[in-house]
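ugh ok fine here u go
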Amino acid sequence: MTRVSKEQKEGLKGRIKRKGKSGITAVVFGRGLIIVLMVLLQLFIFLSMVFWLSQYAVAIYIGFVVLSSIAVLAIINSDSNPAFKVSWMVLIALAPIVGAALYVFMSNQAGYRTIQERIKRKKVEARPYLRQDKEILNELYEDSPHVAGVARYVKRACGHPVYKHSNAKYYPLGDDFLEDYINDLKSATDFIFIEYFIIHNGYMWNRILDVLKEKAEVGVKVRVMYDGLCAFTSVPINYAKKLTKHSIECRVYASMKPALSSVQNNRDHRKITVIDGKIAYTGGVNLSDEYINKIVRFGHWKDCAIRLTGDVVTSMTCMFMTMWGIDDAKNIKRNVYDEEEEYDRFLKGAGIHSDISNDGYMIPYNDNPYDEYNIAKHLYLDVINRANDYVYIFTPYLILDNETVEALCYAGNRGVDVAIIVPHIPDKKYAFKLGRNYYEKLMLNKVKIYEYTPGFVHSKVILADDKYAICGSSNMDFRSFYLHYECGVYMYKCSEILELKRDFLDTLEKCQRETLITVRNYPIRSKIDGAILKLIAPLM
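structure:
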């Protein structure tokens, strides 16, 4: 078991202080409140029928049936994942009027189409800087026609090419990554770009911010971007303005507003830092103290990060630039710079390091909820389906659609050693109960499930056969695969894949393996909760 230091125990105070604020946020803006309001509205409509509209009950009932039938017909003929269709139909069956109205509302958002157009425009603007080196693609095809096909898919889906002449350094813990990260920030001479789902005031962020202030003072271009949820859980609402006083440009993606909107359901879950176009970081680590175990929230926090150098940094730079450019319309209108000059300024020389020896192939990717491609999911499935020897997975949440479940089961039945490490101490109890609902079927199909007994796993890693690996921001759940902005890097025959494997095997020694006996002995209440949650998992 991992020991908890006195410093970590004292950090619990920070958790207690922040919990009240985040709890209020969860109530005001959470999906739970929407569900409660829907139930109350449905109850009001029902009581209205009983007491005031009883003479029209038959006509109203027929209206309900017609409305529900139209909504279900539209859902069945939509292009969405079958799991989403089932969840919507369950909701409509339970609450015909509200469910149908909510489906229409969530499916026809003006804001959705606006952002979709911005993303398309930014992809076109970035295209000249993301040209595929045909010689590299041809070499990859000679080595592996299949992985070359993966490269073509990613290029078409999000515009990023496959690279050689790039290196990776893997950090098995957030604790390990921080000092290198700080030193790299200090080395910046041109620009620093930072984009994270969570930034939280504390030891980690204060150390980073001190460097950013120093760099901004000497003329380094510093840009910081974080998700709008932070303004209610980890930093002051006007924090972006405070940063600008230190010559740090800052944007908040999708600021939270007290209004029902599907756009606010799509969060910027990415983790990206780019320094001078020469160094990039991504992975699971956010910029908050629990990620480096300076405070304790859910036991020992197991997370990872990856440091990239070489040509692949061009794409990481472009990912940030694109997200920066699709931020809300108010910020875009206030900008006075010419966007083409911005791309030339930051991308023209990014990542060009001819002195870096070839270390396999890297395919960086970014995923967004506004197109027809589910890139993160497809790449995960590709690794699972290509495996012949083993598939090892770190994920904080195991909330799977049918395709992913079947791919894992098929791999297990083919004789592939499929092992998944998940948390033993959850950060979200509902997600934990829901994830355990998948255990039995997976185990019956030779998939091994391990829970990390010291605490919480937040790493997002999948690797197979010492040849394929993905490290990035994507969880194995519906929100990452369908609803969030995500990013990562697909690696093929990179030497650092062995470090990912070593980390997985080392972590297994700190885990307990779940078995059919333990699964079947879970509390009845937990099983019932998990079964119910599974019905609406895609909508959570």
